[in-house]
Design goal:
Layout (H helix, E strand, L loop, with lengths): L1 H25 L4 H25 L6 H6 L5 H11 L9
Length: about 90
């Protein structure tokens, strides 16, 4: 379940960084905040896409597509991964 944990962390980081960027834009619009949080948000977005790729199974690829949506894609992909039942191994 390491992929799901990584997706949870990356999706949270992406959401928090987007909230900080939006709050900065709506209030003081400090360039220092934008210069610091902007690249962090981009990195968190890329980490979310990679983590969604690792956390999904071949049976459910929709979470991979959700992760590509900037801003809300991480939490949507995480929700989809957590709701998808894991395949069980066949016993012979």
């Amino acid at each position: 379940m390491t992929g799901v944990r990584a997706l949870r962390i990356a999706a949270g980081a992406e959401a928090v960084s987007l909230a900080l960027l939006t709050a900065n834009l709506l209030t003081m619009h400090a360039e220092a905040v934008t210069s610091l949080v902007g690249p962090l948000h981009g990195t968190a977005y890329l980490a979310t896409v990679v983590a969604a790729r690792q956390a999904t199974t071949a049976a459910d690829t929709s979470a991979r597509w959700y992760a590509l949506v900037p801003g809300v894609g991480g939490p949507l992909a995480l929700r989809r991964v957590e709701r998808t039942p894991t395949p069980t191994a066949r016993r012979e």
